[in-house]
Every structure is written in C-alpha cells, then in structure tokens.
Amino acid sequence: FLELQMGEIDFKYLHTMMRVYDLDKSIDFYTKYLNMKVLRKSDYPSGKFTLVFLGYGSEDANTVLELTYNWDQEKPYNIGDAWGHIAIGVKGIYNLCKKLEDDGVNVVRKPGPMKHGTTVIAFIKDPDGYSIELIEK
C-alpha cells in the first residue's frame, strides 16, 4: 500500500534514543569525544526522567541522538536493553497508523499525546521487533 501512496506521506529520520545510566558522563562523552552539541534538555518530573538531544546541527535539518536518563535506575543497563527506538517524523500520523495496521504492521502504541507531554506519537515494531517511534510533524 505504501508504494502507491508515497507521495502523500512525508518521512524524515529524526533521532535514535539510548538509555544512559550516568547522564553527565554520557553528555561529557558525546560532547568531548564526538564533538556533539547539546541541542536541548528537558526534565519530566512526573515521569522521573530527563531527555537530552545532542547532534551536529539543528533538529530541523539533522538526525540527532536522544539520551534518556531514568532518575530511579539503580544499576547500569545491559547493552541489549539500552536500545530504545528510532524515530521518524510523519504528517498525518492517525491515517498512517490506520493504513499500517490494515496492512498487518504491529502498531504497539496507538497515536496520541505522549504520557508526560503533548507531542502526538505512536510506536510500531519492525519485523525483528525493534521499536520505531512515529512523531507527528
């Protein structure tokens, strides 16, 4: 179905998310050794987490790295469970998710506002079970 409608859907690869155990150490690593800049940082007290976006230029023009720091994490993550998701910006998220579901794609989180904010998001799984976040743009 997507081949026939690609002109109607606007896709952009936005960011890759990783969970980190020590936020300051992680920010220092990416800025010091990989020359990334902190683009934005947001605390979510009701969810007890912080998001930090790093990259080489504005999020409008570049794919960036999202570090998620969960305030109550008591031990370092295993590499396998540190994986979060990739994020794709889309227009018309509700219609897209309906079409994806109709085509048998696993929509594991229906589109709607994120729990601790207002951004409209959805999550799907690829054939291997990797999470992909769709974000309304």
Mean pLDDT over the full residue set? 92
> Total number of helical segments?
4
Cα-atom Rg, whole angstroms?
A: 16 Å
Oligomer: single chain
* DSSP strand count: 8
Shape: globular
**Spatial strand arrangement across the major sheet:** 2-3-4-1-5-8-7-6
Q: State the distance separating the first and last CA atoms.
A: 22 Å
What percentage of residues falls in helices of 4 or more residues? 10-25%
Largest pleated sheet: 8 strands, mixed
Report the uncertain regions. Answer: none
Structural commentary:
The chain has an eight-stranded mixed β-sheet. Strand 2 and strand 3 form a beta hairpin. The protein is an alpha+beta fold and 137 residues long. 20% of the residues lie in helices and 42% in strands. It is built from four helices and eight strands, in the order H-E-H-E-E-E-H-E-H-E-E-E. It starts with a helix and ends with a strand.
